[in-house]
Amino acid sequence: MALTGMAIYKSLPKTNCKDCGFPTCMAFAMQVAAKQKALTDCPHLSDDAKSEFADASSPPMKLVQIGTAEADVKIGQETVMFRHEEKLHNSPALAGKIAASLSDEEALARLDALHNARFVRVGDEVRVRLAAVELDGLAADAAAARVKALDGKSCLPFVLMTDNADTMAAAAGAVAEKRPLVYKATKENADAMIKIAADNKCPLAVSAGTLEELADLVKAAKDKGVEDLILSFDGRDTANTIRNITIARRAALKKTFRTLGFPSMVDVSVDDAMKETVLATTFVAKYAGVIIINGTNGSELLPVLTTVQNIYTDPQVPNTVEAKLYEIGDVSENSPVLFTTNFSLTYFCVEAEVERSKIPSYVAVVETEGLGVLNAFAGDKISAEKVVKTLDEQGVAGKVNHHKLIIPGLIPSFRAEIEDTSEWKEVLIGPENATGIPAFLAESWK
Ligand code: SF4
User: Does 18 sit in the ligand 1 pocket, CB within 6 Å?
Assistant: First the structure.
């Protein structure tokens, strides 16, 4: 049965010392009850409390870190099956593959391409977050030399990929301080791979043909002290993998079956870019924490990264930008003035289209509690009066030598009231969609 915050609080020292990073013991207890912290994160917990509560209060899915504090990827610690139940916590990381067949020079160039596979979308940087270094076919010393050559050339944490234990031992030992993911332990090599992960204090991916065999591998690894585990599935066997990955997640989250209480990963790397994109996007939704891919082109990565960004935002928190006056480009007193709402997607669409127009402009952002133009209007979060007040507060009139204001085409009814009640005497009704802004400015702002 789930522990309540109060039951957990009673087991704490109640000193409010803040050593756990929370201001009070009660605040920490609520996080433990929400499965966001383990009870053992309180360093002052009594041994009695530890043995009584620790297991029951741990998150049902372990948080696993690949890399070190300076550059890491954290996955897992999910608490729900679906985003709408609460939110999803740690977004999946794309791992770009560096093939073993590449020369050292080509491998470095490939790492550089992965490092630079990053884009700004809706104000956030989205990117490839791991380098999956394939080592199959390389001798042990060549594998160690390869990962050493790549180490230090990028902050991307490594996934080391080989089923050969000798090769893995050399490579993992060469970059152990980088805390790479050892990928992967199978029925055939389990003892050796578990030992490598334990000796180098690295996370370990485990892979098996059935969930029962996977559970056996997890138990074997935990018995040897390897606790940072990732359940690995074959992403190209789509139907089977979706079934198994869903069963494992459901067992962990709904039944608190701790043997499968670890994040999952898939390898979807195929030569067909379109197919790889579809597979990767599928497993963003269902339920991979790491996704190994080949592609580095924006046309392939952006649909996947956009899906990650969409699914891993908190549905209970509006996605907003600061409500203030933005200067886009090298503005002057002759620049156009537009306004929009503080919903991130709306603002960044407007910003991008103003940039595309190449006409420097002021964009006044009105506080609408994170709603877009039409929703804000329907929900009574924006009015002509509020727009005028916002423009006054932001001192917009003092920055330009004209009285023209461009309003969103979705709320043309604001024109009369703004013209009647403010110094903005010439209100122009702009396009309904941001994509129309360049043509509108080119036509109306000569
Ligand atoms: Fe309370 Fe422990 Fe956190 Fe200190 S570290 S505030 S005792 S929960």
Answer: yes
| Domain's final residue, options 254, 288, 311 | 311
From residue 148, alpha-carbon distances to 167, 176, 280, 390 in Å are 13, 10, 29, 56
| Each residue's pLDDT tens digit, 43-69 | 998 888 877 776 666 788 999 999 998
Residues 300 and 374 in one domain: no
Q: Is residue 316 part of a domain?
A: no
Q: If you take atom 4 of ligand 1, which residue's CA is the nearest one?
A: 17
Query: Which residue CA neighbors atom 1 of ligand 1 most closely?
Result: 25
Q: Give the domain range for residue 156.
A: 63-311
CATH of the domain at 333: 3.40.50.11600
230: domain CATH number is 3.20.20.20
Selected residue with higher pLDDT from 55 and 335? 335
What is the whole-number distance in angstroms between the Cα of residue 58 and the centre of ligand 1? 16
Q: Which atom of ligand 1 is nearest to the CA of 24?
A: 6
**52 Cα to the center of ligand 1, angstroms:** 17
Report the alpha-carbon distance of residue 125 to residue 117 in Å, rounded: 10
CA of 7 to the centre of ligand 1 (A): 15
Instruction: Tell me if 17 CB under 6 Å of ligand 1.
Output: yes
pTM here is 0.79
From atom 2 of ligand 1, which residue's Cα is the shortest distance away?
42
Give domain status of residue 319, yes or no. Answer: no
Residues 342 and 256 in one domain: no
End-to-end alpha carbon distance in the chain: 69
**Closest to 199 measured CA to CA, from 161, 160, 226:** 226
